[in-house]
Amino acid sequence: MKHHLQLAIASGLAALALLTASTGEARTVKCAVRQTVAARDLPKQGQDTLELVAAGGPFASNRDGIQFGNRERILPSEKRGYYREYTVRTPGVKNRGARRIVCGGAERSTDQCYYSDDHYQSFKCITP
């Protein structure tokens, strides 16, 4: 009986973890840069880009999802291929513009994402 109760509790916790991961609620974000921005406070185009990252596309540019090299060394040092970059459209601009979201970790993960509105000169950690 005790084993069945432990199994039920573990199953419930796993389901809760999946639910909170998929809804973006109650997740912990480790910010590696000082400035933060809540996902809801991003420009509309940034919110749209985050949704596309989680969905796996389709993206605005064929460059979206490519490796971000972190040459500026503003983000924490990670192994090669850890970070990916995505375009945040800028109204009225015909090229990719300066706005980007950079995400680390697994593809489609938005747990460790950063926003730059000045082409990697600075970053804000995106929080839930």
CA gyration radius, whole angstroms: 17 Å
DSSP summary, beta strand count: 6
Q: In order across it, which strands form the biggest sheet?
A: 1-6-5-4-3-2
Instruction: Look at the helices and sheets and give the structural class.
Output: alpha+beta
Q: Which range does the strand content fall in?
A: 15-25%
Describe it.
It is a single chain. By secondary structure, this protein is α+β, with helices and mostly antiparallel strands. Helices cover 27% and strands 18% of the residues. It is globular and about 35 Å long.
Short description, anyone?
The protein is of the alpha+beta class and 128 residues long. The chain has helices at residues 2-23, 44-55, and strands at 36-38, 66-67, 83-87, 100-104, 113-116, 124-127. It is built from 2 helices and 6 strands, in the order αβαβββββ.
Give short descriptive properties of this protein.
128 residues, alpha+beta, 6-stranded mixed beta sheet, 6 strands, 27% helix, globular, disordered N terminus
Please render the helix and strand layout as text.
Blueprint lengths: L1 H22 L12 E3 L5 H12 L10 E2 L15 E5 L12 E5 L8 E4 L7 E4 L1
Parallel strand pairs: 1-6
Antiparallel strand pairs: 2-3, 3-4, 4-5, 5-6
